[in-house]
Design a protein that fits this description.
Blueprint: E1 17-22, H1 26-39, E2 44-48, E3 51-55, E4 66-74, E5 81-89, H2 91-120, H3 130-151, H4 153-170, E6 173-176
Antiparallel strand pairs: 1-5, 1-6, 2-3, 3-4, 4-5
Helix pairs in contact: 1-4, 2-3
Length: 178
C-alpha cells in the first residue's frame, strides 16, 4: 500500500513523498517547527532557509531510522505555503543502497554481455553465470530495503504526526495530491 493514499500509482516506493498545504506563511511555519523541536524531546532536527530535517534522537536511532525532509515553498496560485515532504532512510543509508543496487546492475549487464559474447563465439565463459546471480540479487536488495522500511514505520509515523500536530495548532493543514 503506498504511503500517499491520494496517489495509488506508487506501489514500490521506498522513500515516500507527500505534500501539505498550509495557510501560514513560510517564516511562521519555520518558527513553529523550530519551537516544536525545542519542546518535544522525541525528535531532533534543524531548520535552515526553506528546508527542515526532522529526525529521531540518536539514543533511539537504529540503522533503519527514517528522517523527514520538508521543503517549504510559496504557492503562487494562492497565499498558501506548500510543504514538500520526503520520508526515508538517512542519506548515508540511501546512498549505500543506491550504490550497491546500481553497482550490481552494471556488473550484471556488462559482465553478462561479455559472457554471452564469449558463448556466441563458441567459447565457454563463467561470466554467463553473472546474469542469473545478478537477477536474483537485485530483487533481494529491494526486499531488504522494504523490510527496513517496515522496521522504521513507527518512527516514520511519529515524525509525520509531529509535523501535522505542530502545524495544525496554529493554522489549517491539508494533504494535497502529489
Amino acid at each position: 500500500m503506498p504511503f500517499n493514499k491520494l496517489n495509488h500509482n506508487i506501489l514500490g516506493e521506498i522513500r515516500p513523498r507527500f505534500r501539505l498545504k498550509s495557510n501560514l506563511p513560510i517564516d511562521e511555519i519555520k518558527q513553529i517547527i523550530e519551537k516544536g523541536l525545542k519542546k518535544d524531546n522525541t525528535v531532533i532536527g534543524n531548520v535552515k532557509m526553506e528546508y527542515a530535517i526532522v529526525k529521531i534522537p540518536s539514543r533511539e536511532q537504529h540503522y533503519w531510522s527514517p528522517e523527514l525532509q520538508v521543503h517549504l515553498e510559496k504557492d503562487y496560485d494562492s497565499d498558501d505555503t506548500i510543504l514538500r515532504c520526503l520520508v526515508g532512510p538517512k542519506q548515508t543509508v540511501w546512498s549505500l543502497f543506491m550504490f550497491v543496487y546500481i553497482g550490481i546492475a552494471v556488473l550484471t549487464l556488462f559482465l553478462g554481455m561479455y559472457g554471452l559474447t564469449q558463448w556466441q563465439l563458441g567459447e565457454f565463459s563463467n561470466f554467463v553465470y553473472v546474469i542469473p546471480v545478478g537477477l536474483l540479487i537485485l530483487p533481494s536488495i529491494y526486499t531488504f530495503s522494504k523490510i527496513g522500511q517496515k522496521t522504521g514505520r513507527d518512527q516514520m509515523m511519529h515524525l509525520v504526526s509531529f509535523l501535522y500536530h505542530n502545524l495544525d495548532k496554529k493554522g489549517s493543514v491539508e494533504r494535497v495530491e502529489v
